[in-house]
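Q: I have 200 residues here and want to know how they pack in 3D. Can you give me a structure?
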Amino acid sequence: MKGFKTVDAYINGSDQWGNALDFLRQLLRNTELEEGVKWGAPIYMINGKNVIGMAAFKNYVGLWFHHGALLKDTDKVLFNAQEGKTKGLRQWRFHDFEELQSAKELIMSYVDEAIKNQKEGREVVMSRKITSFSLPEVLELTLKEDPLLDEAFNSFTPGKRKEFAEYITSAKRDTTKISRIEKIKPMILNGVGLNDKYKK
């Protein structure tokens, strides 16, 4: 995951999905959402609260609804990419530009509902149980982008996955989170836990 600093840079950095990203950007900018960049990708917020993100991967371009679990989803277009792990985040994937264009009105209905929910203060409350943990969104997106990394990550025990998640979450700056992810990628692929060297 590259650490893009602006939305323009992110869109220009995607040869395959530039048109699709620009199309989504124009839709989102025609709302009251505030545009920004977090974790190197475009994010759209209300009063600094994450509402919708967009990202391009090899086979699709997607919208991420940060509290998508609260959306009615009457057309069944949203799904949880990390079933059993992700509580609120839901994504909508588009595999070509024509599919995206034809869904314009439907996209806006989902966007409008997400904005309404955020303005009403409706948010998915994350569990604070010691036995459970949620993946930081930047790590979740990275795992979705790399199936091999995702498979390796999920081969760890829940305790070791939690250590990785907390290591990313504890970083204050988005750039630090991204650099920490780059640091742990080879560890994950090699089956090395974050704190294994201290446990020998």
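Q: Anything worth noting?
A: The two ends are 32 Å apart (CA to CA). The mean pLDDT is 88.
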